[in-house]
Amino acid sequence: MFLFFWPAxxxxxPLSISVSPGVKVKLTQKGLExxxxxxxxxxxxxxxxxxxxxxxxxxxxxxxxxxxxxxxNMKIMDVGLPQSEVDLVPGTGFRLAIGNAFISMNxxxxxxxxxxMKDHGSFDLTVKGLTITTSIAINSDETxxxxxxxxxxAATVGSASIKFHGGASWxxxxxxxxxxxxxxxxxxxxxxxxxxDAVSDMNPKLKTLNVLAKVDQYAEIExxxxxxxxxxxxxxxxxxxxxxxxxxxxxxxxFSPSAFALPPEVNDMLYIxxxxxxxxxxxxxxxxxxxxxxxxxxxxxxxxxxxxxxxxTFGAFVPQIAKxxxxxxxxLLVKTVKNPVIxxxxxxxxxxxxxxxxxxxxxxxxTLTPLFVLNLDSSVSARVFVSGMSLAGAVTLNKMDLxxxxxxxxxxxxxxxxxxxxxxxxxxxxxxxxxxxxxxYPLPTLGKMKLVNTQLQVLKDYMLIGTDVQFMG
Length: 473
What we know:
Blueprint: H1 2-9, E1 23-27, H2 29-47, E2 55-61, E3 65-80, E4 83-89, E5 93-113, E6 117-140, E7 146-156, E8 159-165, H3 170-200, H4 202-206, E9 212-214, E10 219-222, E11 230-231, E12 236-240, E13 243-246, E14 270-275, H5 276-288, E15 293-297, H6 311-315, H7 319-324, E16 330-336, E17 341-345, E18 348-362, E19 368-387, E20 390-407, H8 418-439, E21 441-442, E22 449-459, E23 462-471
Antiparallel strand pairs: 1-12, 1-14, 2-3, 3-5, 4-5, 5-6, 6-7, 6-8, 9-10, 10-13, 11-12, 14-23, 15-16, 16-18, 17-18, 18-19, 19-20, 20-21, 22-23
Helix pairs in contact: 1-2, 2-3
């Protein structure tokens, strides 16, 4: 599975368009080593599919004369790959080298000599000193997904040793002398095509990269590549678009990603940097979709709360409400009026919102009578964490500021309503928001990829996720 894992994390090789990334990915040497370990099992299985052709010929053997021989029905029994290494090739991809490998097989033999003399039996054969070196290039297709291709391959077979069952001792000299060379040549001709097939077999798996990941009925995230990978001798740095879009219509926000660089971390296999641009593009999409609004009614307030959404409660602070609309339930509409602004500072994520709260009295015939409109500026802090293959969060209220926008019941002191609206935000609005945030937003992933031992830290203008990786199945 090496050829699956390594290009999988390079699944972020972009189309040549000049766009600043919202998300960056770094594959470290530790990740490369994990890929090598997985890859040996994949290469081993591929080599077990070698088809060894029958070998026949005729040679003169003293003092017997000409001997006609055939080795047939040769089957691979075992493949050993005790030594292997993988290296990055700056600007290209990577190189896989396998050394001191062996292949064990068995088959049947028969000979004919002196016209009428025949003999036959079985044999066990071990091919030793097998080496394979291959270079693999990584490119991207028209969808922004990666493709891999074999650049060059070299394979050599050191020697073959045969143990015969049945027959005379002179057979050893015949087979060791003449067949060893032919067998090695037959194997060498097949190994590199099998390696090329193994590389090509990865492309369907690489197409599982979630270049466009659906979030919900409103939004999706694009993870297409925006520049070529920066391959060094120790890591691969990749750039992804990392932008939320409205599913119905892709519209660019009125802001662009700011440059950021991942630190030279080496402890984990994989690092993912998610910029504040990505978070703010989500806020832009949901704000444009008109879904950052919420109607609040009294039945949404916990039963034990002394504060109710009715004209009696509000009349205690704004007497004219109780006088003009006695004994009525109320409804509140809370909505944003500007795109929320999300900022990342070390160990701190803050969301600033500018909104409006419209209060209505619910008439006996269910019509709504507006009472007042308040301007609501609020700040919340977010705790962000990785849940499965998603980035999730939860917010808490920092502060809020109320000012009067419009009153339909005369002048009143807005500050007297602070406690009511703090309660509404904490008991209704924020729990609703947290329920949404808890569902998470998909990270870039490939196939049955799993993050392990994940850590997240908030830095200036981006979040850094450090993680190990497992591929399941």
